[in-house]
Structure to design on (550 residues):
């Protein structure tokens, strides 16, 4: 149940993608997203698919595990599929029964939609699979740094993100532990109607909040004890560094985007 | 009725890159009224094993049968009533507005009426050595030690026939530790409750339990009377454990006084042995 959420999880490894700078990876994902959202020819789709599969291959993450991340997408996919199929008006008729009317265009739009969603999720998962949360937020902070000049508290936001990401596994573990403890005392989480089930989670939520506050308190004290005083003048243990690997990766992604867009432009 | 574990294996996060075998082919039988200690290094599978006793975790392969009930079955209510588990830092699971309500949670979930629940709540709180005047307090107002006792009372109020305690003394001061283990041992003696105690502290295991199971890397490494297990200090040290400190003292004494016994695991025994030795010198 809880364990099925794969997006946002880091999987240790030593692939090219693991070693690349988070900034390179993030900018690559932005470009990749732009490509996925604009691609519109069969050739283009095939290339995107091949590129995505290649990236998964290079990352060394088991393919099956990457697919697991698509589970939550499935619901959205089915939902949009239904809407798209039924409500795309006009076009060549494929199938009709009473008010259900499936057109060639509607089906096409749906398949495109599912394709885009899935490739986007796989791409985004690859980013988090191959980047530790710390490096990810370091990268974000670095990329957003120009916004500091207009008074956006980038460091504080990045710190909050780091802390939030850091505590996701801890809180999940805690939740599971409390669920078990209450289940051992006869708590029942699966029967009854919605309201009854929601209520049955109170014995889990209350201790969870109490412990989250306790942890926050302890963390604040620990940070103060180590003289944390915000981002001004703060140095880092691990500096981000753009290496030849990053230039290579960026070149590949740029090349990929250029090919696709040229292809799309020539198809017009 | 006993706990029977047959060829039990358990794998965490099966099918993911984080897959990890936590238990490998465990075979075990625990009889009624036993007082068993489970020791092992962190990550040796102690906690995973005890969570199988009431069906919180289901075997990846093999089976666990308690009182004739297979833990794979759908209906776990009876099983959860028979096997009470006190988790590590149980005070973190308190949630009700009053101590009374928190202790009553289990009994009410079992379907007992209010009168019976009331009796059990009062019984449970006195069993853990707290006064009834605490019953109307907010659990969060209590001290750490009191909270832990309240949490344990919440499990005792369900009158389990088998009581599992996972590191019940972690984080308590020496006084609280002895008191807590004292009343658990009392419970075992007076009510014939089967007690399974998971702990890091060899001293406590040696002093209170009558059988020790040593876990190592998901397997049972040793299983026997405390005297049998703690005799093999070298083997224990090999897997990152140790014998009780007093045993080390007795071994050192034996090096200079060859007549003294060194198969001694509690301070009381050591006291007797040393007095005897001194008496024999005089």
């Amino acid at each position: 149940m809880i364990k099925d959420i794969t997006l946002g999880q880091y999987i240790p490894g030593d692939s090219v993608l693991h070693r690349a700078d988070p900034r390179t990876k993030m900018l690559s994902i932005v470009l990749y997203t732009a490509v996925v959202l604009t691609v519109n020819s069969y050739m283009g789709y095939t290339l995107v698919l091949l590129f995505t599969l290649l990236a998964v291959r290079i990352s060394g993450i088991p393919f099956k595990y990457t697919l697991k991340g698509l589970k939550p997408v499935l619901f959205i996919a089915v939902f949009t599929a239904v809407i798209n199929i039924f409500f795309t008006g006009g076009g060549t008729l494929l199938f009709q029964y009473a008010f259900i009317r499936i057109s060639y265009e509607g089906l096409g739009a749906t398949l495109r939609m599912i394709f885009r969603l899935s490739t986007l999720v796989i791409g985004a998962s690859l980013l988090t699979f191959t980047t530790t949360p710390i490096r990810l937020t370091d990268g974000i902070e670095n990329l957003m740094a120009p916004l500091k000049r207009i008074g956006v508290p980038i460091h504080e936001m990045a710190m909050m993100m780091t802390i939030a990401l850091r505590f996701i596994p801890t809180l999940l573990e805690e939740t599971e532990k409390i669920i078990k403890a209450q289940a051992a005392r006869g708590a029942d989480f699966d029967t009854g109607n919605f309201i009854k089930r929601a209520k049955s989670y109170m014995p889990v939520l209350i201790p969870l909040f109490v412990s989250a506050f306790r942890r926050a308190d302890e963390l604040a004290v620990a940070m103060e004890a180590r003289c944390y005083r915000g981002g001004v003048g703060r140095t880092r243990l691990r500096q981000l560094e753009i290496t030849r690997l990053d230039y290579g990766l960026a070149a590949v992604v740029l090349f990929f985007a250029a090919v696709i867009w040229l292809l799309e432009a020539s198809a017009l | 009725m006993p706990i029977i574990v047959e060829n039990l294996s358990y794998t965490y996060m099966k099918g993911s890159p984080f897959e990890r075998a936590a238990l490998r082919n465990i075979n075990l039988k625990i009889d009624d009224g036993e007082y068993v200690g489970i020791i092992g290094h962190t990550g040796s599978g102690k906690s995973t094993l005890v969570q199988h006793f009431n069906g919180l975790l289901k075997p990846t392969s093999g089976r666990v049968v308690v009182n004739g009930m297979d833990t794979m079955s759908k209906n776990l209510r009876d099983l959860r009533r028979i096997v009470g588990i006190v988790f590590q830092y149980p005070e973190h699971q308190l949630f009700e507005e009053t101590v009374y309500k928190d202790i009553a949670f289990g009994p009410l979930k079992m379907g007992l009426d209010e009168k019976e629940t009331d009796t059990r709540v009062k019984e449970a709180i006195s069993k853990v050595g707290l006064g009834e005047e605490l019953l109307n307090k907010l659990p969060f107002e209590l001290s750490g030690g009191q909270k832990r006792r309240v949490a344990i009372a919440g499990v005792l109020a369900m009158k389990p026939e088998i009581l599992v305690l996972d590191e019940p003394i972690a984080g308590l001061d020496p006084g609280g530790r002895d008191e807590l283990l004292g009343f658990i041992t009392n419970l075992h003696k007076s009510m014939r409750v089967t007690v399974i105690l998971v702990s890091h502290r060899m001293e406590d295991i040696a002093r209170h339990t009558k059988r020790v199971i040593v876990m190592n890397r998901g397997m049972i490494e040793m299983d026997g009377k405390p005297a049998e297990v703690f005799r093999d200090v070298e083997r224990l040290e090999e897997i990152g454990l140790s014998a009780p400190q007093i045993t080390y003292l007795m071994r050192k004494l034996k090096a200079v006084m060859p007549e003294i016994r060194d198969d001694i695991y509690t301070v009381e025994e050591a006291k007797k042995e040393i007095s005897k030795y001194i008496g024999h010198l005089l």
Remarks:
- The two ends of chain A are 46 Å apart (CA to CA).
- Chain A is about 70% helix and 5% strand.
